[in-house]
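Amino Acid Chain and Its Fold in Token Form
===========================================
Structure side: the spatial fold of the chain, written down as a series of whole-number tokens.
Position: the record begins directly beneath this header, with no further notes in between.
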Amino acid sequence: MQKGFPRQYDDLNAHLEKLDKAGLLWTISDPINKDRHLHPFVRWGYVGDVGTVVANNPKRAFLFTNVTDSKGHSYQGDCDVMVGGTAGSPAIYAASLGIDDAGDDLTALSQKIFAKWVQAFEKPVPAVEIPSEAAPVHEVVLTGDALKGGEGKGLAGLPVPNNTPGWDTAPYFSAGLWITKDLDTGVENISQNRCSLKASDRMTAMWLIQTNGGAHNNWVKYKERGEKMPVALIVGAPPMLQVIGPQKTPEHLNDLDVAGGLAGVPYRKVACKTVPLMAPADAQIIIEGWIDPTKLEMEAPFGESYGNMSVEEYNHSVEVTAITRRKKATITSMISQMAPSESGVIKQLNYSAVMLNHLKNTLYVRQVKDVALHGPMIGVSRLTVIVLEKNTPRTEVWRALTGASAFMRSVGKITVAVDEDINPNNVEEVLWAIAYRTDLMKSVKIEDYQANGHAPKLRDREWEAKIMIDATMHYPMPPVALPTKDIMEEARELWEKAGLPKIAPRWKWYGYSLGDWCEEWTKCADRAVAGDWLLNGIRTAVLVDTDAVGGPTAGVPRKGVVRYNEQTGQVEYPEGFPLRDKFNTDE
């Protein structure tokens, strides 16, 4: 234990100040009912297209400083609520990781995030224990009778919002991080899972079995040994710890040490008051308790990130034994439910970086350039896109596809490999590659026995299948059918001079070669731009017999291209003219 050990990283308060200075925070001082309106208010920021994971735009986080509830209580001055402040947009997520986003597009940003996670896994920094009296999260300690009595007491005294008003059956901590401990190794795991309120001193926890998470695996050991399980819920974690929760981290590492690796400095930890666990000293709130592994309680419905409500099921019941907090605290909540959402951004960027690390540095598929898990509507885990270098051997393409679809139990139901000219974060471009670069008889592989995972439960069997698609080019193809980059940039200058709204391209905006082209056609195009298209008409003026080329739509092979000599004004014909392409087109 080290007295006087200073904090060297951002806690939530410092993070909010930085978001505000960067123009990434809305502070809402009007009264907002946390039971009815708070989450729907933020939801408009997502469905209103002021920020998605597809484009890097001015999406902001929300800080509510005048929270009320349907019973008429006011929490102003005691507890604020923040939503979207960890990963409300790629720019906010970059700030959480201490990355200077500098307007990077999502692909460029993902490379910086990838480097951060590699550093965290390779160079974790051990956390340092400080005394209770020095821990901000121990400024207020509630135990015993202070937790009992219902309304206004314990958990019922915190402004925990309803996440999906009209469907959810209780307020939920949607951004809480559970601390659990491995009975054999003593390693503490931190995982983000939902938590609903049941009483002023009782709540329920849902830890996914299908994803093989650390919290559930630790619970299994307590159940096997017939011991009660100590748990603690972190609310309002420092941002570089908050991003650990949804992440797949090495099981032999304490997650607080991984957070230290992300920050490059040690995290401060403090012993919990009523359970044998260590908690982050700079959190806003810690809720301690015990689980009886032999008992379960009915929990949910709750709106899930895969776009459906999860209906009532049996999950862990937590007897709360302590709430420790700052005098003025901030509850973090996360927009989840149907993507686009904050949970979608954090999982997309987290999972993508770690999967990229796995493919490049564990499987050594060196040609992998990027990985993207698609978020909007389908909630990240169902569609994975892998970007590979040009001319990657077919064996490595399929090793990447197989490795990505097997890396996490239920991630990668649809896994697609694309070339590096495809933006993996743009589903239209990915579909374009699938539509025109695949031979479905040899480019698609379907395998059984993929975990169902975080999705509506299947009613006919316990698992499902997965599909892998090689949508990389199998041979050179004609150019992308858009004006060339230089001409498009000239047109943009004219657009801006005309005072029209700022352009933020979502799809491909200029054409480029994909290998199936020749210099003579470029010269013809240049002449057309210069207004000399009549010369191109001279080039093709000699007509050919229909039967000699096999009929309409017969292609001209590259060795059979006719050339116009601008210096002599003569048309040059190849030997054997007219030549036709060996590939025919169906009538």
